[in-house]
Write a structure and sequence with these properties.
The structure is a homotetramer. By secondary structure, chain A is of the alpha/beta class. Chain A has a single domain, classed as Peptidase C15, pyroglutamyl peptidase I-like (Aminopeptidase, 3-Layer(aba) Sandwich). Helices cover about 30% and strands about 20% of the residues of chain A. The first copy, chain A, is built from 6 helices and 9 strands, in the order E-H-E-E-H-E-E-E-E-H-E-H-E-H-H. In chain A, strands 2-3-1-4-9-5-8 form a 7-stranded mixed beta sheet, with helices on both faces. A two-stranded antiparallel sheet of chain A has the order 6-7. Chains in contact: A-B, A-D, B-C, C-D. At the C-D interface, strand 7 of C face strand 7 of D.
């Protein structure tokens, strides 16, 4: 079994991307599965192309993309990617799409095919704060999540895939007032747990990760 | 022209629903259009049935559903409804669906057909804090938003529809520490502006309301 | 009876100061008492001098200073002013004191002599969100609060005095994401209630406004 | 040289107190100084008595009390303790003082005599998120901080003392939505750094840790 895990380059004013740092530090073997680690550019379209090429090359069974969600306290397992690009700031190549579709022939949205509730449960058992998120935003993170699930739908039916957001790490908040962060080694440990749960659960479990608004 | 605006009954531990209170206080005529006000139950499925019945009866041109998002500071114009019910607490009839589809034959998601960016712009011009939201949650609010857009897609192609979340009002936060609220009359004024903008703009404007996570 | 109420000039990147705007809009007579309104500069030392001069001129019975606390959701009635100036940004005259005493011969701190719990209670009865705050910061707001209470201690023993922080108003948060604000007319109404309660209660009431950290 | 470090028993609904857990895990020797670790009850008055007894017994040069501030993201070095007990919930012995003085013959407040800015600087150099706080609340934490500084002022003039608040640790937020936490080993590492900086700096450094409200 092979699991492809991707992390983004830094973007915006940040000099590092905790997603990428954590991905690099992950184990190389988890439950017997080979972990393939890929850096993707924080660039619309190009990020999906780099991902597609790597999927073709490595033929993974599971793909997990990881991005930074500064300001969140917990690991958040994304539920859904939506067919929209709407960027508040330019990406690393200067593109700033506004209200454009990711793919014209795609569904309005795709749901993660990872066992997202089971993943949260396993993380909590391991004392790593985690919850479901219902939005990956409208920037490159959502773009890549949607792109991955589009590719799975169109070309790679047997792959399970989804997206995980990680908080800032400590060194990113040293100059910020009262901003949540997570210890890098704990994020890394969390990613290992996420892979393990993704391998272990063929079907997701039925527990609520719901909201009330 | 007719505009149907709905507000929910109170739910959870709250005794009033600011969405309903504001809807009740809206003008009866806006830009010559008749405003039809409808209370909907905070109940899965039943809320959509009540809405469908009212659409049949009144044949509105525009439908705007309004709900409470406690903890948010601003009026939030929802971008997308997703095909999932995942309730953290039971609804007012005791139903608590977990990871069920709203409609089996629906799309994964539907985008609001209101001019959401133009609405935010008009609200800001009127000094009412507002922004785009990318998630209406997974409770009865998202359920009704998705249901409305499903009905439009299947049966009422000419209707424009969408969903707006409003903050707590002052009397709801008096016993809470440091929780944002909005003055009820300002929410009401905001809803009037939202209807006006929805009538005025056939096509949405191209400005970013995007995010960076 | 006379009540002196002060509001600061705008500071930092803000073009208006909601404290000053609300003070200007207050009633001129409350419970028979004359309300004297004073604009004070957002400047260390000078603000206290302007206040002292006005106290000498008007001989008020009660003095309430009002400032902006951007990011807070509620009216906050300050409990204590501390003998320290520690400015994160320069004041409106370019001064940026770091860890200096406000007055060398002052106490380490002075407690508000307003009936702060009774004020919160009356505000809540009037449906205006309010709570006690245990810190007025270390900028010009705390400086003026401390200065007022120092002057009372040294020269004006019969005056009751204290400080109130108000949230941003709507027009200040229009370009900010999810930031709490309060409707200006509600802040103004709140200040009128605060004066009324300050006149009504000679002694404060015994209810908790406490914290648990 | 001897440094006494105290941690509280758990209180409220929490089963553990991260302050105590971190104190227990601290080094026994730092820069040649002996570290004495003391558990104190989360009880008004009794906590100060236990502290006083331990000071008498051990004659430390530095005393650092540590408590939990759930909801804060960073290590916060407290600037000032105030002469007030105002408890929102009962302490572990059922006492709930409201607006009582800690000591009738004490100052209104005492400032920490630790080098608080230098401590924050050293923590940041070590990549541990930290900032100055201007309020330790009005519960047992402030009570003990004030009590310590009162004892120093009255009886132990040569001791340097102060208070540090620590965030929730991960296992405390697993059932909470989006609540900041810090990795226990990082809190522990932070406490070691705080002791080191307290030994190293006789005088505090002049940098701003100020606020703007």
């Amino acid at each position: 079994m092979k699991v492809l895990v991707t992390g983004f380059e830094p973007f915006g004013k940040e000099k590092i991307n905790p997603a990428l740092e954590a991905v690099k530090r992950m184990k190389d073997k988890i439950q017997g599965a080979e972990i393939i680690k890929l850096e993707v550019p924080t660039v619309f379209n190009k990020s999906i192309k780099v991902l597609d090429k790597s999927i073709k090359e490595h033929t993974p069974d599971i793909v997990i993309c990881v991005g930074q969600a500064g300001g969140r306290s917990n690991l958040t397992i994304e539920r859904v990617g939506i067919n929209i690009d709407d960027a508040r700031i330019p990406d690393n190549d200067g593109n700033q799409p506004i209200d454009k579709e990711v793919f014209k022939d795609g569904e309005n949205a795709y749901f993660s095919s990872l066992p997202i509730k089971a993943i949260v449960n396993e993380l909590i058992k391991e004392k790593i704060p985690a919850e479901i998120s219902n939005t990956a935003g409208t920037y490159v993170c959502n773009h890549l999540m949607y792109g991955l699930l589009y590719l799975i739908d169109k070309k790679y039916k047997n792959i399970k895939g989804g997206f995980v957001h990680v908080p800032f790490i400590q060194e990113q908040v040293l100059d910020k007032k009262n901003t949540p962060s997570m210890f890098l080694d704990e994020i890394t440990r969390g990613l290992n747990v996420i892979v393990k749960a993704s391998i272990k659960y063929d079907k997701d479990i039925k527990v609520t990760g719901g909201t009330t608004c």
